[in-house]
Amino acid sequence: MGVPAHDQRDFEFAKKMKIPVKVVIKPFDSDINPENMEKAFEEDGIEINSNQFSNIPSKEAKIKISEFLEEKGLGKKIVRYRLRDWLISRQRYWGAPIPVINCEKCGIVPIPYADLPVILPDSKEVNFRIEGKNPLETVDFWVNTKCPKCGGPAKRETETMDTFVCSSWYYLRYTAPKSLRNPPDFPFNKNDVDYWMPVDQYIGGVEHAILHLLYSRFFTKFLYKKGYIKFKEPFKNLFAQGMILYNGSAMSKSKGNVVSPDEIIEKYGVDAERLFILFIGPPDSDAEWTDRGIEGMSRYVNRVYRLVNKYIEISKIKNSNYEELNEEDINLKIKLHETIKRVTESIENNFRFNTAIASLMELTNYIQDYLNENEKPNIKVLREILENFIIILSPFAPFLSEELWEMIGNKASVQFNNWPNYDENLIRRDKIELIVEVNGRVRGRFTIERDLDSNKIEEIVLNDEKIKKYIENREIEKVVHIKNKLLNIVVK
Predict the structure, then answer these.
(1) Burial bucket for residue 362 (CB in 10 Å: 0-12, 13-18, 19+)
(2) Is residue 117 helix, strand or coil?
(3) Rounded Cα distance, 187 and 327, in Å
């Protein structure tokens, strides 16, 4: 037994009382010896000395331990928020001036409303190299003023507010960026705020939930109680994005594991970098940066470029007046509309950009196969496919899309086009692909008639030789059927 060395207070207590220290979390890339430790290791890492929770990331272990305690009736997972008093002043130039004047006779005097906002002096007037003083103290003409109460000599406050003070209500200011000194429109117009606010979608990292979002709620609730706004919450929806990891830990200058975007852009291009970051995984999960991954995405960008070049070459020598569509042409159009549907839904469904890009890659392969296998490609159909493909590619690779759009003969920017619609009737086929799982793992894919009776589907699947080997001599507990999509067989 011993005191876990993952909390500095417990660590100091154990050292003081000469109680053995036990390491329960170690760094991702190294081991630590409790006998040589001078302070607790309080970062995320790998769980050790923790029975069944050992050898898994500590973040994941916290969830599993909480679930274990709840199952055993020994505890319950809860989330607590505590907003402590915080210091808003900083000894620096950049920041909102604190609107008070210090008078020897009257003390601290607020600046009159008519004299707001207080404007900082030009940074060229500030001496940033002087030690022992706030930078603003070096600007005599700005510091020395008159007391608005007695008219005597006074000095402005030379400390500034921390930047979080401004970031706690900036979204309100965005609705009235030109409003300066027009009460009651200062610092924002109430009608504009009531129309635009609250914010529909907030996107930020997990660290924002700890500080920025709590401060924003504090400011919003204060303004609501004072009657400046009519809503209690600043944001309707929150989407917390994950972090990009490198060698198992979050990128950090102090750790020396930062990948320079400038170097990646110089070598592979900005669109390859953008596509890879969006494709690397769900945006709400942490993802590992790999050099091979960016190289693969660079190859995909080049493939798309070559594909459009090939179309341009074909269009010059082939007759483009094919009015009759063969089966390959129709299937290509169906694939386009399926892709538009998937990309649209992926964007609208929790920003699943990775699945959207995967769908674009599938369409790219399909177009390439169409050109390779079809001796007389329908130029008219091909142009329709490529134009729509470039439009739905453009949010993910804007520079590449802009160039491709111009290459195929368009003059105006691709960004001026409406998002394409998909035809449900065209997508709907008589045959569908049914995914078959056994205990949640994919074990087969079956092409069957759409809307086929469940009993008939089970009969086909359970008599298939490939599926039989996964359920042989095992009792089937239940069969879960999602119509036209999935059949999951649960066995003991």
Answers:
(1) middle
(2) coil
(3) 63
What distance in Å separates the CA atoms of residue 466 and residue 377, rounded to the nearest whole number? Answer: 38
**Among the four given CATH numbers 3.20.20.150, 1.10.730.10, 1.20.120.520, 3.90.1150.10, the one describing domain 290-424:** 1.10.730.10
Q: Look up the CATH number of domain 430-491.
A: 3.10.20.590
Per-residue pLDDT reduced to its tens digit, 364-388:
999 999 888 887 788 888 999 999 9
Among 13-27, 145-159, 246-260, the range of highest mean pLDDT: 145-159
Q: How many CB atoms lie within 10 A of CB 237?
A: 10
Cα radius of gyration (the chain): 31
Give residue limits of the domains in the chain.
Answer: 3-71, 89-163, 168-241, 290-424, 430-491
pLDDT at residue 18 greater than cutoff 80: no
Place of tokens 């970062």: 43
Beta-carbon contacts of 269 under 8 Å, excluding residues fewer than 6 positions away, are 298, 301, 399, 400
Region for residue 344 given its phi and psi (left: phi exceeds 0; alpha: psi -120 to 50; beta: otherwise): alpha
Report whether 378 contacts 322 (CB < 8 A): yes
Supply 28's token pair: 């991702």
Nearest to 148 by CA among 188, 181, 107: 107
Q: What is the pLDDT of residue 385?
A: 93
- Residue 4 scores a pLDDT above 70: no
Angle between helices 270-279 and 398-407 (to 10 degrees): 120
Is the full-model pTM beyond 0.90?
A: no
The better pLDDT of the pair 91, 181 is held by 91
CB 73 within 8 A of CB 146: no
